[in-house]
Amino acid sequence: MLKKVLIVRFNPTWLLSNRENSILPVAQLVSFIREEVEDYEIVGQSLSMCIVTVKGDSKNLTQLAKQIKQILKEKMKVTVFKNVVDFEVVERNFEDDKKTDEEKVSDKKASDEKPSCCKQISSSETDDEAEPEENVGEKISSLVGAEEFKALISECEKIAPAMIKHKTEDIFAKQCYLFSINDGCGLSTYLDLFAKHLNQLGLFDCVVIESAVQEIRLQCPTDTQRSNESFLYDLTKLFRKTQKVFCVDLSEWLTKLNDNLFKIILNLIEDCCGDSIFIFRVPFVEKETLLQIKDAISDVLTVKDVSFVPLGNDELTECCVRFIEERGYALDEETVSLFSLIMNRERNDGRFYGINTVKKIARQMIYYKQLSDAEKETEDCLIKKADILPLISDIEESYEGLRSLDEYVGMDKIKDRVEEIVAQILGSRNNANLGSPCIHMRFVGNPGTGKTTVARIIGKILKEKGVLRNGNFHEHFARELCGEYVGSTAPKTAAICRDAYGSVLFIDEAYTLFKGANSSFRGGDYGVEAIETLIAQMENHRKDLVVIMAGYSDEMSNLMKANPGLESRMPYIIEFPNYTREELSEIFFRMARKNFLYDEEFENAVFNYFNALSDEVLSSKDFSNARFVRNLFERTWGKAALRAQLNKTDASVLTKEDFISASSETEFNRMLAKKRNKSLGFI
Questions:
Q1: Is 86 helix (H, G, I), strand (E, B) or coil?
Q2: Do the domain assignments include residue 436?
Q3: Contact predicate 27/60, CB 8 Å
Q4: I need a surface site. Which of 346, 488, 509, 645 has the fewest CB within 10 A?
């Protein structure tokens, strides 16, 4: 006879935190139930849970759960139930307890009935006013992107009624999934929604204590671990947990899919399928590679592949807007544009974590908005540029076309060449007979000669002229285009290009993608694969994307040999010469004049230092030109700040001693190792 029982299960982590108590929490709870509750029966008990039922029809299990919750609150001082205890209702056949194992097996074969699965009672159900159940399906439909995931959910919704009607849910639970998704793209969110929706559809009931989902990174064992049976034993013990959704990260196994141990692990998972649902996770790779991974897993398991295309700039912006709106705020049009610039800055430092970074920016916007309102003694819900100035202080303002080049030292010839290129692009755009020309460029020259600055300005100019939609600047080192796994380079390069549509994609040290026909790079031809993908993007989006590759002159010439189509698609070349001694001095003084005062002695010291740099130093690839000057200037005012702090003097005045102290440090002094015959004037 089936009878409903209530399982009261304590969180194992909470139990451990109370292990010093003289009486175990379960024993203490059972004692209080016996004292406080009528018409009950304790039908089971362990270290972490007790099973209670009611006698007759005196009360339902939800009422019993309310009474137990009140005991926990008043007698055991439990105030937050979410991470302490769960209530769960199951149907239990008490007659089975009296049967032999042979009789139970016989009954199972004879019965077409599927045993009832667990239903969790949430904390809200034990309260007087229960909250409405979350509609997970609608939440999934409203997600940004994730089209294949939405298609999977739609498929589950279509098949659920038939499976429940014919009691074939076990077939569904035997199916595994292969998710191709990058870090920071919301994997945990998708897994949680998937588990909850299966619960609501009735296709798979998850036992929820802390989470219905458990994420595991499957590590490759060492030779010692391989010979130790505990490795497989631990996996077996883990996977034997029932009514869970397991996500197994296979990143470390992508080159070992034919390993015998991997096949053993798949067989182990196959034995556990049905009791739990298994989802394999790999980084986002091109579809052909994903199908190869799927084939390797499908030798043992039934697998359905789902790709999660990385979100582009527009989609990430929408995520930010939604996150802020959920908290009662909104962004004006200008601030939405600023978000894109802030996000580009986050990308360019090489540490971008997808949705997590987007949420971080959104939280910062809300914080500075509230701080701004507090300081101004105002309050509204619209976040404007003036509210988030601390977030954009290092983001350069818009340029006014070619005139901005006048602000930089030694740019006269560069400006003439840029004017010539822009005129040629506009001329070809206005002549229908010329078709759509390639507008991609090569910048050649040593470090610190202004390549990045000019590339950023060109984006603004082309936007002003109507050639580009956005004119933003996306900077990446060439090695960032290459993936870490076979099949991941092409989608990674394509995603970087997609983010830069309507703008400039600046690829620094581009020559590192190709070392020559007889050389390898990043474990094979990842660099060449990146170039092939880049060429396709440059051709397909020639009207809405400017790719600028930058690097040393000789190495950039060698790069053009990597693919016959590369050189023809980059017709414009701008050469950036090294700065002269006089130009280096002027760059230094322009930096100094912005915020500092200095006397003639300081001025002479600076002139003498740069005049002493040899031709060999100035033409060396190791010399970083304006970057070197900036570092020397920053070290100089750092010395001035320390001196002013110690002597309690004015920090806005630079002295000769400040400069000598800075330029004498190793990284600057070694530049004078190969001097001219004449010595420095201040030595």
A1: strand
A2: yes
A3: no
A4: 645
